[in-house]
Design a protein that fits this description.
314 residues; alpha+beta; Jelly Rolls; two-stranded antiparallel sheet; 6 helices; 11 strands; 17% helix
Amino acid sequence: MLDWIGFLPGKRESRRFVGDHILTQNDIEAAGRHFDDIVAFGGWTMDDHFPEGFYKKEAGTIFHPAPSPYGIPYRSLYSVNIENLFFAGRNISATHAAMSSTRVMATCSLLGQAVGTAAAVAVLNRITPRGVYESRLAELQQTLMEDDCYIPFRRRSVNEITAQASVTSSNGEKAESVTNGFDRMIGDDDNCWTAAMGDRLELRWESPVAIGKVRLVFDSDLSRPTHNMVSYYTLDQKPFSVPAELVKRFRVQIRGADGGWTDRVEVKNNYQRLVRVSLGVTTDGIRLIPEESWGNERVRVFAVDAYPAESDPA
């Protein structure tokens, strides 16, 4: 019995373009071969459907396992012969087998972010899509990671002002994890500072520095088993809500010349994982104080980065 169907039919390979690299089943099974130009990832099985579709009497799909995650290269997202053409989604440069994994919506959304960011880099630098690969690849990857896009097998570069800070916490937890360039749990590495409400995390410098913004990454429970992007609702569907782990209310303080701390920013109703707050101060210390979550007694903070005023992230 059919109880749900999409209102628009979509054929996954109605168009498929050719780029500087054609992603293959072998690439995927080798976990993306750790492409130097990785800008996105997948993890869905390669589900190969028989052409007969509904008319095939036996099982109609072969599921070829795929590593999760595997890398997708930037060279599969622009044309090999049309100078100014990008593509993302169910039309990238991939074989029939590889496409059966990359075509799922979560992966397509990552491809869209990668292409949108690459287009911005191309326009700002007056270069072609291939020119981004040839001369601005590191900038593209860093920009994506600054925007909290996960790129497997890559570490986000921490800027010099953040790297120069000493990081401590009032609860003795792993404060230094917030500046290691990994903004989520990866395998057995939690890459975070764990805190109760009211705990304090400090970044201190030997002399005052001009800080334009602070970039924060909180825990939004990315490993939860339920769907992150809801496409259907069942009769017994539990309500979706902001993850209980996420920091809801927090303060950012600055250290004055007298050694005292004063509030600079207070956020009361945060529901974002990536948060950028403007400071516009010269100080030798900043302090983060989580004060309320969306339900949990403890929270995780994956990143605290300070940016000088002249190089604020967008």
